[in-house]
């Protein structure tokens, strides 16, 4: 048996498959619908924010490069059934321990950047205010990711980590 096939079978028996890591997608694209993506790059060219790219031949969002405006230009450019009409992102954000406020440095950049008021600053004793995200209000636009000086904001699939 060829080595590659042997490794594949071993992974299968251990319950591990070659599932790629979670990637954020533009609004209206799900992990199922992205299966229709042919990698033509029409959406990448259409995005006025230049925040789309192809990864493994499929469209992905790069929130760390800038905010999605939900303008719909990507959906309009796409010739395949990749985008649904909801324009909802399939991810939300997470603020991790790299937040500067946790290192006693006052920072409210994410709160100030958020167009949905999804981040509030909570007072605490003995240190700067800490950001708290309201998952229900976050639309996954990425404005906070791009502007966070601590690179403390990442994303996860809607409904929880993978
Ligand atoms: S909705 Fe607009 S800004 Fe957002 S990824 Fe699509 S083209 Fe870019
Ligand atoms: S335009 Fe549609 S098919 Fe082409 S890369 Fe973008 S999502 Fe994929
Ligand atoms: S990704 Fe969520 S928390 Fe961050 S700016 Fe956009 S709506 Fe606000």
UniProtKB/TrEMBL annotation:
<dbReference type="InterPro" id="IPR004496">
    <property type="entry name" value="NapF"/>
</dbReference>
<feature type="domain" description="4Fe-4S ferredoxin-type">
    <location>
        <begin position="28"/>
        <end position="57"/>
    </location>
</feature>
<dbReference type="Pfam" id="PF12838">
    <property type="entry name" value="Fer4_7"/>
</dbReference>
<dbReference type="InterPro" id="IPR017900">
    <property type="entry name" value="4Fe4S_Fe_S_CS"/>
</dbReference>
<keyword id="KW-0479">Metal-binding</keyword>
<feature type="domain" description="4Fe-4S ferredoxin-type">
    <location>
        <begin position="91"/>
        <end position="124"/>
    </location>
</feature>
<keyword id="KW-0677">Repeat</keyword>
<keyword id="KW-0408">Iron</keyword>
<feature type="domain" description="4Fe-4S ferredoxin-type">
    <location>
        <begin position="129"/>
        <end position="158"/>
    </location>
</feature>
<keyword id="KW-0411">Iron-sulfur</keyword>
<dbReference type="InterPro" id="IPR017896">
    <property type="entry name" value="4Fe4S_Fe-S-bd"/>
</dbReference>
<feature type="domain" description="4Fe-4S ferredoxin-type">
    <location>
        <begin position="59"/>
        <end position="88"/>
    </location>
</feature>
<dbReference type="InterPro" id="IPR050572">
    <property type="entry name" value="Fe-S_Ferredoxin"/>
</dbReference>
<keyword id="KW-0004">4Fe-4S</keyword>
<protein>
    <submittedName>
        <fullName>Ferredoxin-type protein NapF</fullName>
    </submittedName>
</protein>
């Amino acid at each position: 048996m060829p080595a590659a096939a042997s490794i594949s079978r071993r992974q299968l028996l251990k319950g591990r498959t070659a599932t790629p890591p979670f990637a954020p997608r533009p609004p209206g694209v799900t992990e199922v619908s992205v299966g229709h993506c042919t990698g033509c790059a029409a959406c990448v060219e259409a995005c006025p924010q230049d925040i789309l790219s192809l990864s493994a031949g499929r469209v992905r969002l790069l929130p760390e490069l800038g905010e999605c405006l939900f303008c719909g230009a990507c959906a309009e450019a796409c010739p395949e059934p990749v985008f649904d009409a909801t324009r909802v992102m399939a991810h939300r954000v997470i603020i991790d321990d790299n937040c500067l406020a946790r290192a006693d440095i006052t920072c409210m950049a994410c709160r100030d950047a958020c167009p949905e008021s999804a981040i509030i600053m909570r007072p605490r004793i003995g240190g700067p205010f800490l950001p708290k995200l309201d998952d229900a209000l976050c639309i996954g636009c990425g404005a906070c990711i791009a502007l966070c000086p601590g690179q403390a904001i990442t994303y996860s699939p809607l409904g929880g980590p993978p």
